[in-house]
């Protein structure tokens, strides 16, 4: 017989609810006390930062938030502090990162840099999920990769046009027109190719970037201009990379699409093989000069013919870099799994907005399953990381975290420490793990309740 159903106990339910809220409050009290003790330092930092060009930026991916403060006068001339700063302002947990490079291009202007560049952004699972962070993540990735004193200002021009029958909202229209964009410096000059390649490889919201080879109204004219430009000389017969594999894919957008499945934009835009064959035949004068084999999966030279642009011209573009495979650190692929894991895009954004770079030391004060440190090791393989987690051993196994790093050939954290990051002794242990020095950067995803209380307190300072 099934067990008899227990009668409802309203008093027990009320008791459990009250206990849960009391425990949450007690968990936040140490953070509030630490901030109150550090209030004068926080005030002086904010005041000095306001005079010296203080910038406060917040990234939010659902409940994941990063606050980055940069002040040129609070610590030292040209220094940068990137952290969720709690009581670290008073005990030297972090140190300013002094830039040793200027914001000028890292190499001389070359013929490659004279060509237009295109970026293809990663699609969104929901409208507005990551759209507002695209440009900022890219510019901060450039600054981090090349050690610039500030993020460069770039110009973007939507490449695609919408000519459908359904009336779209302003957000939907921006999503389509901004799915693929021309990119240049703020003054309209071409952006450095080296900048774009290295930044793309660590920018989570970028899928690919391209270099424009030619623009034309017809396929045969496109082939002629491509040969004249010299942009493909290295992969043509007699070139330096003549044996490189190659592919040509056709991407038709809007009314130019011949796909019966409907008009699509972005990654899911596919064109029939028949249309691609016709394009290759029409551009035969170009492709008969290729010596390498065709590889539609992992070609060394990826070429795309883009139709349905605002300029009403065909664009022949060559892939120069691809974005990181963020799925490799997705929560479902990790050995260490928590109830509220940090998503890959959020983890990458936290690191890129914090300018995590090789040679730096990075601390996560609420490490959890170490998703943030996984992203840090991915964008900067030679950085040193340390994590602090109060639930280590109870809900999170250190061995599982280490396996997540080792199985991906990523640098294992210097230390994963069990304890409360508000405890000075725990922070001292973290510093000892990197030679008893301040950290270059603190990047963390604080518990929701803690962040709410901290935000409310900082708003009064």
CATH topology of the largest domain: Rossmann fold
Helix content: 25-40%
What is the terminal-to-terminal distance? 63 Å
Assembly type of the chains comes to single chain
Quick one: how many beta strands?
13
Work out the count of structural domains.
Answer: 2
What's the level 1 CATH class of the largest domain?
Answer: Alpha Beta
Shape: elongated
Radius of gyration: 26 Å
Helix and strand content put the structural class at: alpha/beta
Mean pLDDT: 77
Return the CATH architecture of the largest domain. Answer: 3-Layer(aba) Sandwich
Amount of beta strand: 15-25%
Spatial order of the strands in the main sheet? 4-5-3-6-9-8-7
Q: Mind describing the biggest β-sheet?
A: 7 strands, mixed
> Count of DSSP helices?
14
Give the tags:
461 residues; alpha/beta; Rossmann fold; VC0802-like; seven-stranded mixed beta sheet; 14 helices; elongated; disordered C terminus
Question: Can you offer a commentary on this structure?
Answer:
32% of the residues lie in helices and 17% in strands. It is an alpha/beta fold. It has 2 domains: 21-100 and 327-458, 3-Layer(aba) Sandwich (Rossmann fold), CATH 3.40.50; 112-322, 2-Layer Sandwich (VC0802-like), CATH 3.30.2130. The chain has a 7-stranded mixed beta sheet. A 4-stranded parallel beta sheet has the order 12-11-10-13, sandwiched between helices.
């Amino acid at each position: 017989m099934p067990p008899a159903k227990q009668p409802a106990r309203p008093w027990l339910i009320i008791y459990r609810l009250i206990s849960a809220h009391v425990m949450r409050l007690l968990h936040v009290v140490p953070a509030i006390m630490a901030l109150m003790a550090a209030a004068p330092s926080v005030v002086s930092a904010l005041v000095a930062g306001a005079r010296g060009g203080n910038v406060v930026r917040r990234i939010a991916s659902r409940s994941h938030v990063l606050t980055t403060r940069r002040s040129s006068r609070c610590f030292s001339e040209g220094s940068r502090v990137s952290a969720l700063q709690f009581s670290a302002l008073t005990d030297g947990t972090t140190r300013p990162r002094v830039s040793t490079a200027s914001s000028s291009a890292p190499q001389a202007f070359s013929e490659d840099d004279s060509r237009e560049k295109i970026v293809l952004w990663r699609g969104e699972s929901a409208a507005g999920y990551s759209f507002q962070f695209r440009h900022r993540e890219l510019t901060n990735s450039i600054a981090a990769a090349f050690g610039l004193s500030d993020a460069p200002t770039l110009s973007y021009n939507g490449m695609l046009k919408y000519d459908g029958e359904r009336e779209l909202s302003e957000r939907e229209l921006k999503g389509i027109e901004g799915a693929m964009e021309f990119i240049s410096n703020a003054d309209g000059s071409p952006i450095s190719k080296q900048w774009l390649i290295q930044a793309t490889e660590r920018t989570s919201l970028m899928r690919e970037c391209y270099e424009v080879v030619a623009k034309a109204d017809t396929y045969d004219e496109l082939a002629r201009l491509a040969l004249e430009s010299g942009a493909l000389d290295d992969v043509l017969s007699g070139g330096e990379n003549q044996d490189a594999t190659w592919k040509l894919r056709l991407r038709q957008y809007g009314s130019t699409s011949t796909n019966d499945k409907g008009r699509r934009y972005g990654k899911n835009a596919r064109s029939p093989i028949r249309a691609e064959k016709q394009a290759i035949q029409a551009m035969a004068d170009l492709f008969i000069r290729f010596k390498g084999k065709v590889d539609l999966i992992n070609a060394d030279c990826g070429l795309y013919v883009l139709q349905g642009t605002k300029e009403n011209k065909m664009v022949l573009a060559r892939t120069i870099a691809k974005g990181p495979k963020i799925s490799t650190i997705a929560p479902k692929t990790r050995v260490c799994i928590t109830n509220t894991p940090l998503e890959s895009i959020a983890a990458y954004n936290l690191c890129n907005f914090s300018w995590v770079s090789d040679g730096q030391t990075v601390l996560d004060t609420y490490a959890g399953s170490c998703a943030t440190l996984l992203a840090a090791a991915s964008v900067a393989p030679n950085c040193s990381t340390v994590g602090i987690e109060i639930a280590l051993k109870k809900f999170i196994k250190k061995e599982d975290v280490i396996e997540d790093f080792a199985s991906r050939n990523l640098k294992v954290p210097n230390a994963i420490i069990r304890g409360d990051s508000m405890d000075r002794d725990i922070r001292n242990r973290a510093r000892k793990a990197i030679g008893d020095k301040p950290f270059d950067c603190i990047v963390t995803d604080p518990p929701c309740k803690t962040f709410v209380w901290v935000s409310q307190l900082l708003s009064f300072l």
